[in-house]
């Protein structure tokens, strides 16, 4: 009889312990859920795209019960740029002056408060500045030829904005090219030269409304044998 009662009491105790553990687990889960809902961190903007030399800013906003301890860092583990400053609350703004290509990457705002910790990230892309297009013609830019020879000029953009396409076009003495001329991707080729092909040839580069030009010329026998003005 005593043995049966003892085993019954032990069984009841085990059931009570399991129930207590289940209750504690439920309370802990509810507590953590409330923390997650109440304590949020938001970095804005999520993505920054600015040209080299710009000043950029990320704003870190914690939402929840203060006080907050806010730390900015880089996700790759590198130190923040020496040109970086961090503001105090409520914005906790990360500012980087004169951004360089090496500053590109993800920045982490880590926040702790009495309820725990959380974080959010922002990404910085550093782009080439909006440079005006510049063109040049590869040497030689003055060709001395004989009738029946062929001529070729190569024009290239040596500075341009990589974010947009540019166009290179050739003209002769301010007008149309000879009908036999072949023009492709900045290369001008003229076969079987004759008197009408002598003159000044201009390559013009254009991009986003900006233009630049360079000039070359073709002559026979070392003398200017064309009537277009210099």
TrEMBL record:
Residues 53-125, 129-219 form the Ig-like domain. Keywords: Disulfide bond, Repeat. Pfam families: I-set, Ig_3. SMART domains: IG, IGc2. GO terms for biological process: cell-cell adhesion. SUPFAM superfamilies: Immunoglobulin. One of its GO terms (cellular component) is membrane. The keyword Disulfide bond applies. InterPro entries: Ig-like_dom, Ig-like_dom_sf, Ig-like_fold, Ig_I-set, Ig_sub, Ig_sub2. It comes from the Eukaryota. This is Ig-like domain-containing protein. The lineage of its organism: Eukaryota, Metazoa, Spiralia, Lophotrochozoa, Mollusca.
């Amino acid at each position: 009889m005593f043995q049966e009662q003892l085993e019954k009491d032990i069984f009841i105790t085990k059931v009570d312990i399991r129930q207590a553990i289940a209750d504690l687990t439920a309370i802990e889960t509810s507590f953590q859920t409330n923390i997650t809902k109440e304590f949020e961190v938001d970095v804005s903007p999520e993505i920054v795209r600015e040209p080299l030399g710009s000043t950029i800013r990320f704003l870190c906003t914690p939402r929840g019960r203060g006080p907050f301890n806010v730390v900015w860092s880089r996700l790759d583990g590198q130190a923040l740029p020496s040109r970086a400053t961090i503001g105090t609350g409520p914005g906790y703004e990360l500012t980087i002056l004169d951004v360089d290509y090496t500053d590109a990457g993800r920045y982490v705002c880590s926040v702790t408060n009495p309820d725990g910790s959380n974080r959010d990230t922002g990404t910085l892309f550093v782009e080439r500045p909006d440079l005006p297009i510049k063109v040049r013609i590869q040497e030689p830019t003055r060709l001395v030829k004989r009738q029946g020879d062929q001529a070729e000029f190569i024009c290239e953009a040596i500075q341009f904005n990589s974010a947009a396409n540019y166009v290179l076009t050739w003209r002769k003495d301010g007008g149309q090219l000879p009908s036999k001329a072949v023009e492709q991707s900045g290369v001008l080729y003229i076969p079987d030269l004759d008197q009408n092909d002598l003159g000044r040839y201009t390559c013009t580069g254009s991009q986003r409304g900006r233009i630049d030009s360079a000039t070359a010329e073709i002559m026979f026998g070392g003398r200017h044998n064309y009537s277009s003005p210099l």
